[in-house]
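Q: I'm building a small set of examples for a reading group on sequence design. Run inverse folding on the following structure and report the sequence directly after it, with nothing in between.
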């Protein structure tokens, strides 16, 4: 299934110090998921549930069920037992079966053995509730290091959220990342990007593009991951650059989502 990731609306939701006058809420993202013709939304840590009003969460549960939209959750950091327990509570209320996690500095500071030991302590709870945790490859973590953690955990409870572009920052080409992580993937983040050469010749930067218009070979990625065959949900994201005009920025987010749905729909069932 193809789903909408909340980071597709990074700027409209508000991120760090860039908060719009009227940031999107949970129901707003549900609306945009339906508008895009999708039936799955992943609420990541740019719109964290534990910071939302209780009434909004109740409304989300009711509306998602009545509209037939499935929900996945996301958070940063996993070894705070109370925090993870709270999110498993949200999973029960929202009929959510997958939580995408980006390991934070506190997690990584525990070292591989310490991190694995703590994660093993959650396995029974995850199994009892039928929830899986998908660790996302992120900027500071090599894919091989992420695999070394996941391999020591129960695959019925833990796996990888494979983001096709994040690990460029860790010195990996996208297809290298995909080849390493595809066997362990239980969730897929699909986005695109390209290199922009500095006009004065002082290096280059990686910039986001709409899906299918950058350097990523989407068919090759999907051939390796086989998301439909393996029942892996594909979450659409993008790296739309920020601009000061809030109205124009919101419009462009909608446009990039529409392009992404069309590009992914060529290869996958929406």
């Amino acid at each position: 299934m193809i789903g909408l990731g909340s980071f597709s609306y990074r700027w409209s939701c508000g991120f760090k110090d860039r908060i719009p006058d009227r940031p999107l809420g949970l129901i707003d993202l549900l609306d945009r998921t339906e508008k895009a013709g999708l039936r799955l939304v992943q609420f990541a840590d740019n719109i964290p549930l534990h910071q939302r009003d209780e009434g909004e969460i109740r409304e989300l549960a009711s509306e998602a069920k009545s509209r037939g939209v499935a929900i996945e959750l996301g958070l940063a950091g996993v070894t705070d037992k109370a925090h993870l327990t709270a999110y498993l509570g949200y999973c029960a209320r929202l009929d959510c079966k997958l939580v995408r996690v980006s390991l934070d500095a506190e997690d990584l500071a525990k070292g591989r053995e310490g991190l694995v030991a703590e994660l093993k302590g959650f396995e029974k709870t995850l199994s009892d509730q039928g929830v899986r945790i998908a660790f996302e490859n992120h900027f500071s973590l090599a894919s091989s290091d992420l695999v070394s953690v996941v391999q020591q955990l129960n695959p019925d409870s833990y796996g990888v959220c494979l983001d096709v572009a994040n690990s460029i920052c860790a010195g990996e080409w996208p297809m290298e990342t995909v080849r390493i992580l595809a066997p362990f993937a239980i969730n897929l983040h699909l986005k695109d990007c390209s290199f922009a050469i500095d006009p004065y010749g002082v290096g280059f930067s990686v910039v986001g593009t709409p899906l299918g218009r950058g350097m990523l070979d989407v068919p090759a990625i999907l051939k390796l991951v086989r998301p439909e065959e393996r029942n892996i949900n594909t979450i659409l994201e993008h790296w739309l650059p920020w601009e000061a005009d809030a109205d124009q920025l919101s419009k462009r987010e909608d446009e990039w989502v529409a392009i992404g749905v069309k590009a992914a729909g060529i290869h996958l069932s929406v």
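The chain has eleven helices and ten strands.
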